[in-house]
Design a protein that fits this description.
255 residues; alpha/beta; Undecaprenyl pyrophosphate synthetase; 2 domains; six-stranded parallel sheet; 10 helices; 47% helix; globular; binds farnesyl diphosphate
Length: 255
């Protein structure tokens, strides 16, 4: 991969954390934080589109979130439905290709139908690839992908390319930049395969206060980073002059 290719910000993934604490700090119940947090989502989708990002993947509900109180889980379901009803037209107008990854079997039928309809309508769109991870777990995605491969290719050894092609949404590719809001420094079972070489950015801002402006600044910060993907240049390794290269090789007893 050349250095220009390294600099491209194709896929941004976000862990939208801090809703509950944000609400509690203001003496409100946690669900109020989710309601305010859901109102931020569309401005960040727009900001990603404006920055020329090709794929944006948002962590809206993890497999671990099932252990939250039923009321909180139901509020999150309702917010997803409301978001989709409100944003459907804009998604279509902006040629956004929308998908949900994760297990949505427990969502109400009307929400599942709405998701299926938007996915079908937008599947050929060439704009931003917007993915909501809902009922999602990174380990489960890896296990599902391996099982899918084994079932379709009995006896064949699994390669990295095979694995990638069996992920829930293969076309979004590796994550270039993973942002987590809310001040914690964890990956939380998110896109475990895809974040292997991601740049990580941890923001102190709690999700309901995250803004398009901060998103843009983080993207600019990404552009200033050097991504080496584990490699270094030959001149950095031995020294740029013939003399220093020769003397370093001499110390090692190598010519
Ligand atoms: C983490 O906050 C956030 C979630 C578990 C869900 C993220 C959901 C939204 C942003 C709103 C839903 C929006 C849509 C469109 C589905 P937390 O409750 O873990 O916060 P805490 O770390 O402060 O407890």
């Amino acid at each position: 991969m050349n250095s220009e290719e390294n600099k491209k910000l194709k896929h941004v993934a976000i862990i939208m954390d801090g809703n509950g604490r944000w609400a509690q700090e203001r003496n409100h119940p946690r669900v109020w934080g989710h309601i305010r947090g859901s109102q931020v989502v569309s401005s960040i989708v727009q900001a990603a589109d404006d920055c020329g990002v090709e794929a944006l993947t948002l962590y809206a509900f993890s497999t671990e979130n099932w252990s939250r109180p039923v009321t909180e889980v139901k509020v999150l379901f309702k917010l997803l439905k409301k978001f989709l009803q409100k944003e459907r037209e804009r998604i279509i107008k902006n040629r956004i290709s929308f998908r949900v990854i994760g297990d949505i079997d427990n969502l109400p039928n009307d929400t599942q139908n709405l998701i299926a309809e938007i996915e079908e309508t937008t599947k050929e769109f060439e704009g931003l690839k917007l993915t909501f991870a809902f009922g999602y777990g990174g380990r489960k995605e890896i296990i599902d992908s391996v099982n899918n491969f084994i079932q379709n290719n009995p006896g064949k050894p699994l390669s990295e390319e095979d694995m990638e092609s069996c992920l829930y949404r293969p076309e979004i590719g590796d994550v270039d930049l993973l942002i987590r809001t809310g001040g914690d420094h964890r990956i939380s079972n998110y896109l475990l395969w895809q974040v292997a070489y991601a740049e990580l950015y941890f923001s102190q801002t709690k999700w309901p206060e995250f803004s398009a402006n901060e998103f843009q600044c983080i993207c600019e910060n990404f552009m200033s980073r050097e991504r080496r993907f584990g490699s270094v240049s030959a001149t950095d390794c031995l020294g740029s002059s013939k003399k220093s290269a020769a003397s370093n090789l001499k110390v090692l007893g190598t010519k």
